[in-house]
Every structure is written in structure tokens, then in C-alpha cells.
Amino acid sequence: MKWNKNIETFLGCQAGFEEAEMVIFGAPFDSTTSYRPGTRFASATMRHESYGLETYSPYQDLDLCDFAIFDGGDLELPFGDSEMALQQIEEAADQIVTSGKLPCMIGGEHLVTLGAFRSVLKKYPDLVLIQLDAHTDLREDYLGVKLSHACVVRRCYDLIGDGRIYQFGIRSGLKEEFYWAREHTHLQKFNFDGLEEVVDFLVKTNVPVYFTIDLDVLDPSVFPGTGTPEAGGVSFMDLLDAIHQISRTRLVGMDVNELSPLLDASGASTAVACKVLRELSLAVLHNRKK
What we know:
The protein is of the alpha/beta class. The chain has a single domain (22-288), classed as Ureohydrolase domain (Arginase, Chain A), CATH 3.40.800. 34% of the residues lie in helices and 18% in strands. The protein contains 8 helices and 10 strands. The strands form 2 sheets. The chain has an 8-stranded parallel beta sheet with strand order 4-1-5-10-9-6-7-8, sandwiched between helices. It has a two-stranded antiparallel sheet with strand order 2-3. Strand 2 (56-57) and strand 3 (62-63) form a beta hairpin. The longest helix has 21 residues, at 268-288. The protein starts with 21 loop residues before the first strand and ends with a helix. 52% of the residues are buried. The mean pLDDT is 96.
């Protein structure tokens, strides 16, 4: 595909593709959503509503306008064919990765992570995954379907194996998923305890990291606009601190997903998602310049 400049970009992300350090693109897909659909509208809504924010972050004393970020718009993904959608996401990410730029995807349901993860893994075979999420996403299948947002991390595991997946904030899943994780992943229930030690280890070993944020890791009182809300989540400031920590690692791909904007008519959830993307982009690009 040819990356043309998007008409409506995420706030401050108006660089051209060639000059950009990071490329944002949307993956508006929610065909396997198991409860309430609507995440296909997240990326377009976030772009439109991002202009309610400033480009400047007082949390980090950084400004989006000081970085070269290209917003390539949304991919046109087929509804009802998960593998074809994942293939198109992978091909789009391939172009970004092979151009030496950082891919940043806006989902969509969490299954879209698999397409971008496949792409990044081709360039970085020692890749590890950090997942912030309410859900384990470790099912072998969901109602007989292996390509489901309930199975996405299990499909990533199939590609990289034991000990290379770090899960934080997890508070929902089958008993079998939690027990399986004890043998195969590093899973921290309920919160981000131990994250700093994991980050220190990943920084020391300098392994490439793919970072995925399922926004339902946030408590529903902070973020009700998601298809599968789970009580007992983290606060916005907890998430912000985790982003700052993880941005110290060698990030080579990332995504933010599972906003369903129509489920929060107030628009507050969309505003939270936009702020998360702003802070994530700034933290990562600032650390890449160090």
C-alpha cells in the first residue's frame, strides 16, 4: 500500500511518512468481539476527539509537535474474515518496520495485535511481549475459534514460546488460563507490581519489546467505554506510570486497543484513550532519542 498523508490526523501527528520516526495507523476491526461490539470506531473517533487535548504533556514536559509522527489513517479491513484482516495488518506493519520506523496501531479489538506482532517478530526474532490488560487472552480457542480477541496472547505465545510474555493487571479469565500461565508466561494479577523489576531486566538485556495496551486494564469508573469492562482495574495515573516505565525498554512496536466509543456517550473514555496515546507516543519517542 501507499502511505498517503491522512486528512484528519491524531493531534499533532502531521509529519510525512518519509520524515517520521513513528507511524500511527488504525485497525478498525471487531468481528470476534465476545460481548459488546464497537471498537471498529475507536481510531476514527480518537482522531476527531484528540483536538480536545493539547499537544503538550505537563506530565512529561514534552510536546507532540517536537516529534515527527505520521498518521496514515485507517486500514480498510474485511469484516468477517479474521485471517485476511490480520494479513492486511501484517503487510501494513511490514512497510513501517522495514522503513526503520516505529509502528503504533490503534485498534480495534485486541485480536489486531497478532497481525502487527507477526510483522515485528520477523525483524526481531528475540521479541518479547508486554501486555497490560484486564483479561488473560490465553484461551486455546473461544467457541471453537482460535482467532479471537480472547485468544490473541495465546496465538502470540505460539510464535515465541515460554518466558517471553509479561502480563500485568490481569483480573479475568478461565481458571485453566491462569493455571496455564503459571507454566508459560509471567502473569501479575490485578496490578502492576513487579513491573519495575521486569523493565530493569529488559533494559539490561536490551531485548526488543512489543507493547500492547488493552484499555480495559483501567477500572470501569475511569474507562467505561469498552466491550468487556472488569471491576477492580488500575487508575489512569497507575497506567501512566507503567507507560513511563515500559518506555525505557527497547520498544519496536506497540498498540492501544479496545476503546468502544459508542458505549460511553459522555466521551470521557475516548478522551482517556487519546491521552494514553499522547503520553505513550511522547514517552517512547523521547526515550528513543536518549
